[in-house]
Amino acid sequence: MLRSTEESVSFVPNSHSSRLFLPSTAKVGKTSLIMSLVSEEFPDVVPYRAEEITIPADVTPERVPTHIANVICIVYSVNNKKSIEKVMLIQGCLCVSRVPLILVGNKSDLVEHSSMETILPIMNQYSEIETCVECSAKNLKNISELFYYAQKAVLHPTGPLYCPEKKDMKPLCVKALTRIFKVSDLDNDGILNDNELNFFQRTCFNTPLEPQALEDVKNVVRKNLSDGVCDNGLTLKGFLFLHTLFIQRGRHETTWTVLRRFGYDDDLELNQDYLFPPLKVPPGCTTELNHNAYLFLQSVFDKHDKDRDCALSPEELGDLFDVFPYMPWGPDVNNTVCTNDQGWITYQGYLSQWTLTTYLDVQRCLEYLGYLGYSIQQSQTDPLMAVCVTRDKKIDLQKKQTQRSVFRCNVFGDIGSGKSGFLQAFLGSNLMNIREEHRSYYAISTTYVYGQEKYLLLHEVFPDFDYLSDADLACDIVCLVYDVSNPYSFEYCAKVFKQYFMDSKTPCMMIAAKSDLPEIKQMYGCSPLEFCRRHKMPPPQSFTCNTAAGPNRDIYTKLTTMAMYPHVSQADLKSSTFWLRASVGATVFAVLGFAMYRVLLKPR
């Protein structure tokens, strides 16, 4: 009958702790091991069982903080063959757990030979065993090292990284390191050059590599792998080989340092705190990307726009999102932002989609930035630094000025009034080639007001008058669209306005859509023009998509201007001088911005 006993020890480095569990048969020296470590001398009288003991971090060689975790040390006596045999029985029971295991051969002072030859087959059989240490509680041999390895097994376990049977890294480890390589490959040429390797080194270890050390690393890879180095840079195969070598040589703490710096947890999944940092957005506030985040996203676009056509082909877009666990953008995105003649997302469309995601779902945006390695490449510990929360809209109204860059326009109208066409026209597109399942109820692009670039976000609201939610009503400006050729179309717009917006401070604009068709008298108590006059709204704005030159974009500039300056009086809104000042330079700024980007791309 196997009789086992157990002891437990707690490490308390800084504010965290690691629990060490020592199961084994009786009289193998567990209690002596613990007490020898604490007192640094062999006790003359050993109690039958030690109580739980707390060991400070400075007792062990590795003075590092640990997270709460567990490690199991199976203790046997090197001078007792039966206790060695019983190790296998205990080991079999404990292998079902995911806790790292260490074999400890105690009482090495009583024998002249090593038990390693007997223990090695056990270690090879069970991959859960991190290492084996022979020690002596009596002469304090390897006592401190034992608990060092115990801490190391908690901090840097081999199990998740490496498969001893295959002598290779496990798939999850390869997947994580592959993402790290791609994030670190700043120019996307498939090679880590010296600058990229040094940036990687500083990011993970806070120190650059000396030129000779860098060359030595590459020489090691060259000697072992024919395609590990290319153009004097490290390939993905070489990068993976290097980490395999670290693990095989017992330097797996190096690989763990890299993994944790890039956001991975003990299960080789990206940490939830890394992907989803908590962010509170007060009521009345919105979220936008800051300047540094836009610069980062521009560099990511430039990195993957290999043909320098200022658009991302499906292959380039797939390459960009290769560091994601899933494809974040569906086909509806191509109908949400600007695309080129081939239907590929342009540079402006790419930034617009990021702006949209930040505005509508900032947590999702932070998750995406985490996959791209924003906080790593920007050398920021807080991923929230990418986002700014705007001040309360009520304060903007009081001060009659705003610092916001994104303005939301909710578009209302009856079925068939032309809402979808109005959204697509903003993107320079139409409804001809859009499949229903790829339809988008959002459209976002830039406009220029007084020379300032702003984002206008159009949202088509489903025409259900009785079930409009708070989200349907929350916006910076309201757009009411009616079909001039349908006599009953205007009635819906009038009802929505009178029910939801007549007493609000949200500015509204009436859009007379399909103005290329014969205008029919609206079956309502007054004409649209008279309705706007009574409610101090600008006159209805004529709009059509059916023109050879394309729709006039001035109407979108007017919407953005009204959203920026909701306090402007009706008299000012009617003034042609006001609209001329607002829209002046819009085309010039748009053309210059695009041309400047093309010029900056050419030397790269």
Q: What CATH architecture of the largest domain do you see?
A: 3-Layer(aba) Sandwich
Distance between the ends: 75 Å
| Oligomeric description of these chains | single chain
Radius of gyration: 33 Å
Domains, number: 4
Highest CATH level, the class of the largest domain:
Alpha Beta
**Low-confidence parts lasting 5 or more residues at pLDDT below 50?**
1-17, 41-53, 59-69
Mean pLDDT: 83
SS field, number of helical segments = 24
Query: From the helix content, strand content and strand pairing, which structural class follows?
Result: alpha/beta
Q: How many strands?
A: 21
The CATH superfamily of the largest domain appears as: P-loop containing nucleotide triphosphate hydrolases
Shape: elongated
CATH topology of the largest domain: Rossmann fold
Strand order of the largest sheet: 3-1-2-4-5-6
Largest sheet: 6 strands, mixed
Overall description:
Helix 13 (347-360) packs across helix 14 (362-372). The chain contains 24 helices and 21 strands. It starts with a strand and ends with a helix. With 604 residues, the protein is an alpha/beta fold. It folds into four domains: 4-155, P-loop containing nucleotide triphosphate hydrolases (Rossmann fold), CATH 3.40.50.300; 168-267, EF-hand (Recoverin, domain 1), CATH 1.10.238.10; 278-375, Recoverin, domain 1 (Orthogonal Bundle), CATH 1.10.238; 393-590, P-loop containing nucleotide triphosphate hydrolases (Rossmann fold), CATH 3.40.50. Residues 1-17, 41-53 and 59-69 have low confidence and may be disordered. Belongs to the mitochondrial Rho GTPase family. It is a single-pass type IV membrane protein. Residues 292-327 form the EF-hand domain. The chain crosses the membrane at residues 578-600.
